[in-house]
Amino acid sequence: MLQKILFFRELGLPLNDIQRIVNSSDFDKIDALKLHKHILVKNLDRTQVLIKTIDKTISHLRGKVIMRDVEMYDGFDPKKQQEYVDYLVDSGTITQKEIDENIC
Q1: How far apart are CA 96 and CA 10, in angstroms?
Q2: Closest CA to 76 of 61, 54, 96
Q3: What is the pLDDT of residues 39-79, one digit of tens each?
Q4: Distance between CA atoms of 93 and 99, rounded to whole angstroms?
Q5: Residue 36: helix, strand or coil by DSSP?
Q6: DSSP letters along 1-48, please?
Q7: CA distance 51 to 95
Q8: How far apart are CA 94 and CA 98, in angstroms?
Q9: Would the pTM count as exceeding 0.70?
């Protein structure tokens, strides 16, 4: 039971939700473990892309490679990126034209 709780906590679920899930009559331990594994692999893939982006950025900053602006955002969530861009434009910090000129 503790392992089940810990796996769900790793996914960020609150204890109340975990209790409801594991006490559900249709809770399947194997299905839950497969889901946990799927999510962990997905997160691992994303983390590996972000690590490559960091390494490439370091090489770029040292002048060893030329990095296109769009490559600087590999691995980041596009939805969150757009929300941040929208925030910057709405707050007047930057214009959409400036963003377009720097990305292209």
Answers
A1: 38
A2: 54
A3: 999 999 999 999 999 999 999 999 999 998 888 889 888 88
A4: 11
A5: helix
A6: -HHHHHHHHHTT--HHHHHHHHTSTT--HHHHHHHHHHHHHHHHHHHH
A7: 30
A8: 7
A9: no
Nearest to 69 by CA among 100, 32, 30, 34: 100
Q: Show me where the domains of the chain are located.
A: 75-104
Rounded to whole angstroms, the Cα distance separating 21 from 2 reads 14
Judged on CB neighbours under 10 Å (0-12, 13-18, 19+), 36 is middle
* Cα–Cα distance for residue pair 64/56, rounded to 1 Å: 9
What is the structure's pLDDT at 78?
A: 85
The tokens 């997905």 sit on which residue?
42
Percentage of the chain lying above the pLDDT 70 cut: 98
Quote the crossing angle between the two packed helices 2-10 and 15-22, to the nearest 10°: 130
